[in-house]
Amino acid sequence: MNMPSTPLVTRSAFGVLPDGTEVERVTLQAADGLEARIMTYGAALQALLVPDAAGRHDDIVLGHDTLDGYLARRSFFGATVGRYANRIAGACFALDGAVVKKLGDPADGWSVQERVGMLRHLEASGVPVLSAPDRLNVAVNRYRMTCELVRAGLPVPPTTVTEDLDEAADAVARYGTAVLKPLFTSKGRGMRRLEPTRGLRGQLESHRDGGFGPFYLQRFVKHPGRDLGVAVLDGVCIGAYWRVAGDDQWMTTILSGGRYEKADIEPETTVMAVAAARHFGLIFTGVDLIEDSDGRFNVLEVSAFGGFRGLLNGCGVDAAPMLADVVLRRLGEARR
Prior knowledge:
Helix 2 runs antiparallel to helix 3 (133-139) and helix 5 (165-175) packs across helix 6 (200-209). The strands form four sheets. A five-stranded antiparallel β-sheet has the order 1-2-3-4-5, with no helix packed on it. It has a five-stranded antiparallel β-sheet with strand order 14-13-12-15-16. The protein is an alpha+beta fold. Among the domains are: 8-72, no CATH class; 158-220, ATP-grasp fold, A domain (Dna Ligase, domain 1, 2-Layer Sandwich), CATH 3.30.1490. A hairpin with a 5-residue loop joins strand 1 (8-16) and strand 2 (22-29). The N and C termini lie far apart (58 Å). The chain contains nine helices and 16 strands.
């Protein structure tokens, strides 16, 4: 860059922080027209105007025109790297704990299980992990999760798990209508409703050849167009919501056109959901239940990673700060 013998530097007011501190913008201009505008707020590069071959100037960095834009959104536009931007010999930091909200797409079972394995190493080093990796590993696998529900004495729809295609076809025939589910999935992705028709074997072969694992088949429960989600935080129910199916849909998931509605549930239903959550020992989870034609509930699953959206959209409950409070309390107790 061809700098003039006396670089042109100017300062101007750019805004005021909430505490009253004035923020300036320092403008550096070069002889060839290059111009850099830097704020005294974090030494952030607010604009960089570069001339093209025709002498036209254009701003080539992302930034806001006013200080208010930076204060309204916590972004790192133009951020200046701190004192060190490389590896530091012998560097270390203290990690008080880790809270797990998501480990990637649950449909990618291999990678999720490997990440749980990494969390085990973290836990073994003395860092508290919430929820415990061993508990997450059970809940993320539909087969293991269902076995645990049965072991806890909770009602679940009749279920068959097999690698044999003929046995899978026989199970569909017994159930009349069945739901085929991947062992690793979320939001209903990869699920199929099957009936004992001529095309059944082709559908089962497609599942097998697609690498979705064993045939996990559950009798289809004729529900009233909705299923129930119950959010449990630290062993306590903090809200419940219906997932109402879209028009002409048997699945109630939001991806298939469903919607959330607040649910006022009976005490015995709450007890069932909390019992399921406590059996898995998860700090925050969603328990999915399905209502049959007689009004009785069966437990479909206990989520390894509880969701925020159903509670927020259906009940107006923001679970994120509630979860943070529980985590901080648990970590505080662990340090004593």
